[in-house]
Design brief:
mainly alpha; two-stranded antiparallel ribbon; globular; membrane
Amino acid sequence: MTARWTIGERALDRSRPAVPQPATLQPGSRGIVDLLFFLGVVALLSLSDFALEFFGLPYNSPGGSIIVKIHPATYLFSVALGLAVIANPNPVGYLASLLLRCMGSTFLLLACILLWIFISRYKGDQPASFLIDAIIVAAIIYMLFADVGERAHLAIARAVHVLMITNCCLAMIEGASGWRLFPFVMSDTEQVWEYRATALLGHPLGGALATGVYAIVLMTVKDVRGLSERWRLPIILLCMATMPFIGSRVSFTVVYMTAAAVLGLRLLHFLRGGAVSLRALVAVLVLLPLVALVIFALYQMGVFDNFINRFINDKGSANSRLRLFELFDGIGLINMLLGYRMASLETQVRLTGLAEGIENSWAGHAVRYGVVITGVLWFGIAAWFVDMLRSAGRGAILPLAYIFLILSTTVGISGKTTMMSVPAVIILALSGRSRNAALLRLPADAGNDVLSRIGRGVPLPGSGGVRLS
């Protein structure tokens, strides 16, 4: 038995007879749910941990209630999913159907619950609340996208484009001028010497990951929701120009290598007699020399000096990512199975010389919680990755591989970050399937892109509001 959202009063394809669905599983429309979902996406992409601290919420600061330690977007997503379930005429049946259709995300939620119980029972000296924003919300986001209609999906995609473009522009302004939208504060200390931009997305590693995922989706996915073809190349170039200002070396390398590979394949296709659109050819001939001139001028002005110095002298950052595996040398059986106590782990980290901490999500899980429960968590994360591939298709392979690489070289999801949830929103919003996507046949350049249609309010087939009575 499956649950499907109905598609409003107007028939989208009169040539096909309507197939009746069981009334008990029809959730109706998702007006309130989609509004909360949309607001959650906006909050997630615009309110970084630095912004929350700036506005007076001790999100990362010591002390305070657990209520203020959870991102506002997580509350919005959770309420949206709860309303989607209880507003259904058959909440139990719909919830069961949703969990079965989102099996990978269901496994991830179960794994997080088991890890939370394990930490509460055996790791009283370590917090478990980081699981909410770091991992659990990614599963909730996937479940919300599972039944989103095309109207709401398009609105979310437009919001993602607007916010990502805004973030890129702010990051370039911050990197070039030294001004910051929100102070870069770590451990109650403002990082006044830090040159890397934070903009809307916060910490440079998370901002670089999100910007890189966005750029790679635009490079590799054929049909990007909410964006017409004529804007694709300029936005890709904008993202690539932003990467040095954010400052993540791994993200910079991956994005530029992906761009080189895509450009090489396009050139090979052209040399083998393939057709190339006149608009794309003119754009390349005009934009590439202009971009090269701007980059050369900025280089001469010394804008990229700090970023280049990070490649020349990384202050042992790359070496620390290799030395962290020394934490497993001579580890006892109990610590291998159940993980280190916090005090013991901190001692081992200092003795190993890991000044920046454990910059590998998977190693961070293993040394803290042991291989048994960590293996369960990893299985849940792998299942969630499979869910993402099922929804977004082959176009998600490269972005997901990139996410895995970055999580393997940063603290990532072994701490409280949004390095799973933000990329999930970008991938699912721009390339994920809607519940009624098969019924909609919009032209590729029908003017539904965010830059040419924003504010026009052109109606699309969709659903109304959720009825709670």
